[in-house]
Design a protein that fits this description.
The longest helix has 17 residues. The protein has two domains: 61 residues, Winged helix-like DNA-binding domain superfamily/Winged helix DNA-binding domain (Arc Repressor Mutant, subunit A, Orthogonal Bundle), CATH 1.10.10; 52 residues. Strands 1-2 form a two-stranded antiparallel ribbon. The protein contains six helices and two strands. A hairpin with a 2-residue loop joins strand 1 and strand 2. By secondary structure, the protein is mainly alpha-helical.
């Protein structure tokens, strides 16, 4: 299952905070902040989708993520590679390195990461 853009933004705040009450989530937004009802609706949808759960403290709910950020984005990157690059990581890497205006330093960093992964295999 996938999050909408607005749900993903809220999830980013929740991943950063790790657990949060509604007021904490609202405070995470920059101005202009969304209405409390908007955030409540997003949280409800995300709970129904299985991304968020909560603990009750009286009438207050403390929300926490059920899905790790790394797992969520890993699934999306793998889907991107499968759907747009014929399931070829090398086609993806070629596109990424040629079309994203990476600096020489960033390319060197990527090379170091790849070299480290090669040593592990």
């Amino acid at each position: 299952m996938q999050l909408s853009k607005t749900e993903e933004q809220l999830m980013q705040y929740l991943w950063k905070l790790e657990k949060a009450f509604m007021k904490d989530l609202l405070n995470a937004y920059t101005e202009p902040k969304p209405a409390t009802t908007t955030v409540a609706t997003l949280i409800k949808r995300m709970t129904e989708k299985g991304f968020v759960a909560y603990k009750l403290f009286g009438n207050s709910r403390e929300y926490y993520p059920l899905v790790r950020k790394k797992d969520y984005f890993s699934k999306h990157v793998n889907g991107l590679i499968k759907n747009f690059f014929n399931d070829s990581a090398s086609q993806f890497a070629s596109f990424f390195t040629q079309e994203t205006n990476l600096s020489k330093a960033e390319l060197e960093d990527l090379k170091t990461i790849i070299d480290q992964e090669l040593k592990k295999k």
